[in-house]
Write a structure and sequence with these properties.
6 domains, Rossmann fold, elongated, alpha/beta, six-stranded parallel β-sheet, seven-stranded parallel β-sheet
């Protein structure tokens, strides 16, 4: 029996030896081959490689170290629930239960002061920390545990607590190990021992496990396969940091400092000494035992930068020949602004690598991060996009919470107990697919429910009692109870304006049996939410908690093929509490006390469990593997990419407790998270075969502030810099070849090209050495659509194209020059980013932008329009929106911007306007008193709470009364019967009713500040009034707003103006109409001051809007979609396909593909220049006069000039 140590600088070179061992027959063909690994990634890789070598992989078992040794220690013991009593999870609950009874002991003064507030969560968190550290003691301080059990050593609270825990069940690792050793020695082995055990790729093990290995090697064969980055003896080298610490210690002891000229440190590799501490100590421990080492050295003839670094680590005393090429890209470091940009840049890098190397497969690529879950959403968004080549990939090693929507929603339900019950939190739960299906709700029904809830103004809180429990006034406004009561009452009885029933008013949103069924499903869901939060808010035993949580899972989640795995994992996690309970209740000190746990504690435990469970499937399934760093450490790949290598993220920093005896008295071989991560970084460098890629957040996306990469990356960069300076003595003065002299002149004269090169090399003087000479560090743009990424064809931006490769290329010929990864010019394969870049460039200059609608929407010859007067007014309110909604049947989602989890403290302009109009109608028609109106709007959740709401209402009501008195001044004459309108123009039929009409005027009232929309609406009604053939009706119209009174005078020929409105309406149904009420009105208002000022003021209105408008028209979503988000309201369109005469011309041809209508403008008039297609350079550069802007101006003038001609301001009181 022996302990055989097999090492190599390339882990794959050890596979033949492992295969030879597996080939050796075992005593029983049914006995499993035990190969201990440290991750599921290594297990998957080994399984595949063994199958390749042996043509089959059967009867191989791959346990983790802890599970393997725990199984050995339990061979002669039976524990409840298969748990060792000192399992950290179980130990946490035992300590939690035991601590209160021990705090009066004087040794526990420190803990008592910490737990003085009797906070259960703090006690649980402390218990978990103690349990974890006690577990480490059994691994790394077995001698101290032995002293504690002999009541010697430090007499501290830790010793006393350990003794209390082990008094009844001394079944900790050390105890079980001693019994196991005695059994082996007495029996000369054990029948349950495997015939042989192999350990593969495990970089380090605790002292406890190596001691066990040494013992096992006396009875069975132990074969240990290990990645050893150095072929020479390096057990006693020290890093610069260790040397500094050693010299400080010598100085304190007044000893002479270490002379590094006589130390082995000087002659070995700096990367090895700095990153290799963790592996060095473990190797030294293995070398100190009875092991026979066999080292397999593998070198590469490649002279790439990556290979030279690896060779220098492997053979640090050998002279490595070779010059580093300035175009070498085997190691790349990318500085980005955000995690999304990291993934976008990675995506382009991988496509470029695949493009340059047809032999490279997706399975040859691994992408790792310190915590891959933080990138999973961005990876899915970028790699699943349909705008470019598709690469198969798998994201693995995510936590259960990150990978399981069910688990995330499960925690969200639990979090409701101590929450405000916000609108968003409830809807997020309902939108989970498993929850939605459990309550038999469709996606459309969820959308309908959200609309109902938004209309009822629900913000947060279950009911007034819930608010009171949060020490807030118990008001019912904006609560779930208030909103649901409105919906229920509105369904059972008709809505009565300004009338309350038992203090509530109905809402008539649920108007059909189908809607009622949907609402009933929602009520079932909501009542279940309310019931479970009440149940969870109490304390229970662990067994009772298992029952309650399992009931929650079955109530809210649909169990099907998709969710079965996730639900099973949650259930198994929860049922672990049953095993814990069995152990706790079986111990003598706990026999008289059933452990009762509060909700806060159980929630803390569940969060920790869900966050610690990792989904470890999907490794190496034929595509790119995305995972965290640790599971794939040491596994070779042609291309290895590390993302998220940020300062203060990697290497990790351990959170050391002040009473941690391991940290306070460190020994060689102790585990250090930081030192382990540094060794993982070295292993990853050694495992990359062709390319090693790193990205980090090196630039702030808000202020461009530069941030540092991980110290490991910084050290690698420094090492490469020294290599460059040492090997390439002339490299620092060499410049990259850019082509011919003519090309170089073009490069210098082209500001885009020049600024791009400067930005990639001028961040700081030191960095420029790496960036310019060897292209190691590449600083990226903030956005993927920056034009600099599409410069493969000089001055003709295009995305890179793909060579023949087993990927799906984007449709069409993208053009471009492929560099094969040999240049440092920024590039991108993303066609969508390319299109965005082109659009952005076009918006900054006079470029031809393709219109949203290229051809008119065809209408059937017999098509007829039947519209109301209100439809026509609605069209001119926003023709773009009307076209998208009514012609193309397109609507933007209404919901998201309306959702709010906080009640409003003041009314916004739109809310105030709506309430003013409703109250005015009520007051004008004598419906409802002031008190009734206030209570009505208060119950509808439309007013701010308390005194602010009363003040807002009083202000509105007072304004309405004032406005009503003004209206009364114009309604002194007799009111006439409201006239019915029916008007026909070509194939358009308009109908409706004008109201209210008095003997003197038609009255149009808007209790708000006057807007162009009000003027247009009143003008259209006025024209229809004047088109009446009856002489019984007046010919004037009064428009009243809160600030103005306008009189529209009689129109001699209303038909010509109505026909223009209807012509443009017709044209606006076959393509978007270039009419924007605010901007167009501003243009026409300022025409009297000259066209230049009119255009300038219109542009300002377009971009900025007014102080009392919520958004400028340039920001309107419908207008932006129709007109490509132009920076000016004067939307370009070539004159030779669509042009109109100046304002005084004929407009019949608008909206049709017609030639330019000739006219004879006055000499020198700019309209002549416009129609002639010639404008001065000064006018064009000023952005004011553009030959492509006539359509906007003509439409505005034709619609609005007659309006202003017939309108008079009578705010002084003239009502004639």
């Amino acid at each position: 029996m022996a302990f055989n140590l097999y090492t190599s600088n390339r882990i794959e070179s050890l596979l033949p030896t492992l295969a030879d061992i597996i080939r050796q027959p075992r005593k029983s063909i049914f006995q499993e081959e035990v190969i201990v690994v440290q991750s599921r990634g290594m297990e998957q890789w080994l399984s595949l490689e063994i199958a390749k070598l042996l043509k089959i992989n059967a009867f191989c078992k791959f346990p983790f170290p802890t599970a393997f040794f725990n199984n050995l220690l339990q061979v002669d013991h039976t524990f409840k629930g298969d748990l060792i009593p000192f399992d950290p999870g179980l130990l946490t609950w035992r300590i939690f239960n035991l601590l209160p009874s021990m705090l009066d002991d004087p040794l526990f003064t420190q803990l008592k002061s910490y737990l003085v507030d009797n906070n259960d969560i703090k006690r649980f968190q402390l218990s978990k920390k103690i349990a974890d550290i006690f577990d480490q003691y059994t691994m790394y301080r077995t001698d101290m545990i032995e002293q504690w059990e002999k009541n010697t050593g430090d007499h501290s609270w830790q010793m006393r607590l350990w003794q209390k825990l082990s008094i009844d069940i001394p079944a900790h690792r050390l105890h079980l190990k001693n019994k196991f050793i005695n059994t082996l020695k007495v029996s000369k082995g054990h029948p349950d021992l495997p015939e042989r055990v192999s350990f593969f790729g495990i970089s380090s093990l605790p002292v406890f496990f190596t001691d066990m290995i040494e013992i096992l090697a006396q009875f069975i064969d132990i074969n240990y396969f290990l990645l050893n980055p150095c072929s020479e003896f390096w057990d006693d080298i020290i890093s610069e940091r260790e040397l500094t610490q050693l010299n400080r210690k010598r100085k304190r002891l007044r000893k002479k400092a270490v002379d590094i000229t006589t130390e082995h440190y000087e002659t070995l590799n700096p990367l090895l000494s700095s990153f290799g501490t963790y592996g060095r100590d473990f190797l030294a421990r293995l070398h100190g035992g009875n092991s026979d080492e066999s080292y397999t050295l593998v070198t590469s003839e490649s002279q790439s930068l990556l290979q030279q670094i690896q060779n220098q680590v492997v053979m640090p005393t050998e002279a490595i020949s070779g010059i580093i090429s300035p175009s070498d890209t085997s190691i790349q470091i990318h500085s980005c602004h955000s995690k999304l940009r990291e993934i976008q840049v990675l995506h382009d890098f991988l496509l470029d690598s695949l493009n340059a190397n047809p032999e490279l497969k997706l399975s040859d690529i691994a992408v790792m991060a310190p915590e891959i879950g933080e990138y999973s959403v961005h990876v899915s968004n970028v790699f699943n996009a349909s705008n470019g080549p598709q690469m198969q990939y798998t994201i693995t090693d995510k936590t259960l919470q990150d990978s399981s929507p069910v688990s995330a929603t499960f925690l969200e339900i639990l979090a409701l107990v101590n929450s405000r019950f916000t609108f968003t939190s409830i809807i997020n739960i309902l939108e989970n697919e498993a929850v939605r299906e459990k309550f038999n709700l469709s996606i459309d029904e969820i959308l309908q429910i959200k609309n109902w809830l938004i209309e009822t103004q629900i913000n947060w809180a279950r009911d007034p009692k819930h608010k009171e429990s949060l020490n807030l006034p118990p008001t019912s406004e904006n609560t779930w109870k208030s909103g649901i009561d409105q919906l229920m009452l509105g369904f059972v009885m008709p809505k009565l304006d300004f009338i309350l029933y038992q203090g509530i008013t109905g809402n008539d949103l649920i108007s059909s049996s189908t809607s009622a069924e949907t609402f009933g499903k929602f009520l079932t869901f909501y009542k279940a939410i309310e019931n479970i939060t009440v149940t969870l808010s109490k304390s229970y035993t662990l067994i009772e908690w298992v029952r309650i949580i399992n009931s929650l899972i079955s109530t809210f989640f649909n169990d099907n093929e998709t969710t079965q795995s996730e639900l099973s994992t949650l259930t198994r996690t929860t049922e672990r509490l049953i095993s814990y309970t069995q152990h706790i209740e079986s111990t003598s000190q706990d026999a008289d006390n059933k452990l009762v746990i509060s909700f806060d504690v159980i929630l803390t435990w569940l969060k920790g469990e869900v966050a610690s469970i990792r989904i470890s499937h999907g490794y190496m399934n034929g595509g790119i593997t995305f995972c965290s760093l640790l599971p794939m450490r040491g596994i070779p790949f042609k291309v290895i990419c590390l993302i998220g290598m940020n300062e203060n993220v990697f290497p990790r920093r351990g959170n050391v407790m002040s009473w941690d005896l391991i940290a306070n008295r460190p020994r060689k071989g102790d585990r250090s998270i930081e030192i382990e991560d540094r060794y993982v970084f070295l292993e990853t460098i050694m495992s990359a075969r062709e390319k090693f890629y790193i990205s980090y957040l090196g630039q702030n996306e808000h202020n461009e502030r530069v941030a540092h990469a991980s110290i490991c990356v910084e050290e690698l960069v420094g090492y490469v810099r020294r290599m460059v300076r040492g090997k390439n003595s002339e490299a620092r003065i060499q410049k990259p070849v850019v082509g011919s002299e003519e090309e170089e002149v073009d490069r210098i004269q082209n500001p885009v090209a020049r600024s791009q090169e400067e930005e990639f090399s001028s961040q700081n003087p030191e960095a420029s050495i790496q960036e310019v000479e060897i292209g190691l560090v590449r600083r990226h743009k903030l956005h993927a659509f920056n034009a600099a990424y599409f410069r493969d064809l000089r001055y003709s931006p295009k995305p890179r194209s793909l060579n023949t490769h087993p990927l799906s290329p984007p449709a069409g010929d993208l053009g471009g020059v492929v560099s094969g990864g040999k240049d440092t010019t920024p590039f991108s394969y993303n066609t969508r980013s390319y299109q965005s870049a082109v659009t952005l460039l076009n918006s900054k200059g006079n470029y031809d932008v393709k219109p949203f609608i290229i051809h008119d929407i065809p209408l059937p010859d017999d098509h007829k329009f039947e519209i109301t007067i209100n439809d026509l007014i609605k069209f001119y309110k926003n023709p773009s929106k009307y076209f998208l909604n009514n012609v193309l049947r397109m609507e933007f989602a209404y919901l998201q911007e309306a959702v709010d989890d906080v009640e409003s403290f003041r009314l916004d302009n739109l809310e105030s306007y709506d309430i003013r109009q409703q109250i005015f109608d009520a007051v004008y028609n004598s419906r409802g008193s002031e008190k009734e109106l206030y209570n009505y709007y208060k119950v509808l959740n439309l007013l701010p709470h308390g005194q602010p709401g009363l003040i807002e209402f009083d202000t509105i009501f007072s304004d309405v009364q004032t406005f009503s008195r003004r209206v009364a001044e114009y309604t002194t004459t007799a009111q006439l019967e409201n006239p019915d309108i029916d008007y026909t123009f070509e194939n358009i039929f308009v109908y409706g009713t004008l109201r209210p009409v008095f003997k003197s005027n038609l009255i149009v009232c808007r209790n708000s500040k006057e807007k162009p929309l009000d003027l247009i609406g009143a003008w259209i009604q006025h024209l229809f009034l004047n088109a009446l053939k009856s002489d019984d009706y007046p010919k004037s119209t009064i428009l009243l707003s809160s600030t103005t009174s306008r009189l529209f005078k009689p129109v001699n020929d209303p038909k010509q103006y109505l026909d223009i409105f209807l012509k443009f309406f017709k044209n606006g149904n076959i393509r978007p109409l270039r009419f924007f009420p605010w901007t167009s009105a501003k243009y026409v208002e300022q025409l009297s001051s000259g066209r230049e000022k009119a255009l300038l003021d219109a542009t300002k209105m377009w971009l900025e809007g007014t102080y009392n408008s919520s958004n400028a028209e340039s920001e309107d979503r419908y207008i932006s979609l129709c007109f490509d988000g132009e920076a000016r309201p004067l939307i370009p369109r070539p004159l030779n396909t669509r042009a109109l005469n100046p304002p005084q011309g004929d407009f019949e041809n608008e909206g049709q593909s017609s030639s330019v209508v000739s006219s004879s403008p006055p000499a020198g008039d700019l309209w002549g220049e416009v129609l002639g297609g010639e404008v001065s350079g000064a006018a064009i550069s000023g952005g004011v006069y553009n030959t492509l802007n006539t359509e906007f101006e003509a439409i505005a003038s034709q619609i609005l000039l007659p309006l202003y001609d017939h309108m008079t301001d009578v705010s002084g009181g003239d009502n004639d």
